[in-house]
């Protein structure tokens, strides 16, 4: 299940994401990036 949220991004970052997102779309691109960051943060927490 997914929930719609609103975020703000700098114009240049959004344009860069749009160029790379292809058919996946911006939401899928951002979701993948946030999942990666969440995983890295969790790993760091394990080593504290």
What does this structure look like?
The chain is an all-alpha fold. The protein has one domain. The mean pLDDT is 96. Helix content is 69%, strand content 0%. The protein has 2 helices and no strands. The protein has helices at 11-21, 25-46. Pfam families: RHH_1.
Topology diagram in text:
Layout: H1 11-21, H2 25-46
Provide keyphrases for this structure.
mainly alpha; 48 residues
Find the structural class using helix and strand composition: mainly alpha
Distance linking N and C termini? 32 Å
Run of helices and strands:
HH
How many helical elements?
2
The total beta strand count reads 0
As a whole number of angstroms, the C-alpha radius of gyration is 13 Å
Number of domains: 1
Low-confidence stretches: none
The overall pLDDT average reads 96
- Percent of residues in helices comes to 55-70%
User: Rough shape?
Assistant: elongated
Largest sheet: none
Beta percentage is under 5%
Could you give a short description of this structure?
By secondary structure, the protein is mainly alpha-helical. It has 2 helices and no strands.
């Amino acid at each position: 299940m997914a929930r719609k949220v609103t975020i703000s991004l700098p114009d240049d970052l959004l344009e860069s994401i749009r160029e790379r997102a292809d058919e996946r779309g911006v939401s899928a691109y951002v979701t993948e990036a946030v999942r990666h960051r969440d995983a890295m943060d969790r790993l760091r927490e394990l080593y504290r």
